[in-house]
Write a structure and sequence with these properties.
Its main location: membrane. Part of the ABC transporter FtsEX involved in cellular division. There is one protein chain. By secondary structure, the protein is α+β, with helices and mostly antiparallel strands. The protein has two domains: about 190 residues, no CATH class; about 80 residues, Alpha-Beta Plaits, CATH 3.30.70. The chain is built from eleven helices and four strands. Strands 2-3-1-4 form a four-stranded antiparallel β-sheet. About 30% of the residues are buried. The mean pLDDT is about 75.
Length: about 300
């Protein structure tokens, strides 16, 4: 097979169907940019989960005098020293517990003042109104229910709270956004495939005379089909290159410059450039192979050789 002939046919095909080729490139670029973005979003959520779940604590809040008067869970009175020692001893015996820190009412009051000192309520609070608590770090954050079952309802315990529950709502929202991006990507992918098939069909129909002559002189099916497949592959590769550019530009302007999210949102450990660069070969490979395969199967129906 002469490479010069194939390359010339590719150029002719791309120029002849310039409008549809442009539509293919744009649709492939958008769908692959969404595909790469969804992969990066999934990695970002996984990174955030690993980072924050490692920091969350389970808190056991103990009854104080105010709770004994108002909260039915503390109807037996404020927590005693014996009850605190018993709770601490039981916590240390549990295999799921990694570390236990006791926070006194005075320490809780100090921390509240540091975080919410400007709040109007801070001036009316006193240390004896704050709750003592045990801050528990688990070896596995998913084992919260083990602690909750063991200590909920025990004398001297007002509540058992898991900070992980607050993070689950955030991660649920992020996962929902990711699935929405995947749905849009799938729609754009279908559009791109339909455009590729139609482009190949029009190209094959417009060159039916040439392909007929090639068939009469004994050209193989693969030789006849190759220019059409390569046309789709080149258009897809250009679209994949644009998608890679969109991912790089998006990472640059959203995280490092422009919006500068990495500086404005210090609580999130954003993915680095290495994570983005690692996805580019996959995006380019899909951009090359997807149109080529679509063209190959379309030619079996529309190009009778």
């Amino acid at each position: 097979m002469r490479a010069q002939f194939v390359l010339s046919e590719i150029g002719v095909g791309l120029r002849r169907n310039l409008t549809m080729t442009f539509a293919v490139i744009v649709s492939v670029a958008l769908s692959l940019a969404l595909f790469g973005g969804s992969l990066l979003m999934r990695d970002q959520v996984s990174t955030m989960k690993g980072y924050w779940y490692d920091k969350v604590n389970v808190s056991i809040f103990l009854c104080n005098k105010a709770d004994a008067e108002q909260d039915p869970k503390c109807a037996k009175g404020a927590v005693t020293n014996e009850q605190k020692d018993q709770i601490l001893g039981d916590l240390k015996k549990m295999p799921v517990v990694d570390k236990v820190v006791h926070e006194s009412a005075d320490e809780a009051y100090k921390h509240y003042k540091e975080q919410f000192g400007d709040s109007p309520l801070s001036s009316s609070l006193t240390p004896d109104q704050m709750q003592e608590s045990f801050r528990i770090k688990l070896k596995d954050p998913e084992k919260y229910q083990v602690v909750a079952t063991a200590f909920s309802g025990r004398d001297g315990v007002q509540a058992v709270q898991d900070q992980k529950g607050y993070l689950d709502n955030l991660f649920g929202l992020l996962n929902g956004m990711n699935w929405a991006a995947v749905a849009v990507m799938a729609l754009m992918l279908v559009v791109a495939l339909m455009l590729i098939v139609n482009t190949v069909r029009v190209s094959a129909f417009s060159r039916r005379r040439e392909t007929g002559i090639m068939r009469l002189v004994g050209a193989s099916s693969f030789y006849i089909q190759m220019p059409f497949i390569m046309e789709a592959a080149v258009a897809g590769l250009i679209g994949g290159g644009l998608a890679c550019g969109m991912l790089l530009v998006g990472r640059y302007f959203m995280i490092d410059h422009g919006l500068e999210l990495s500086e404005k949102i210090n609580l999130i450990n954003f993915l680095g450039w290495d994570a983005v660069l690692a996805k580019l070969p996959l995006v380019l490979a899909i951009g090359l192979l997807m149109p080529a395969l679509a063209a190959f199967f379309a030619l079996r129906k529309y190009l009778k050789v």
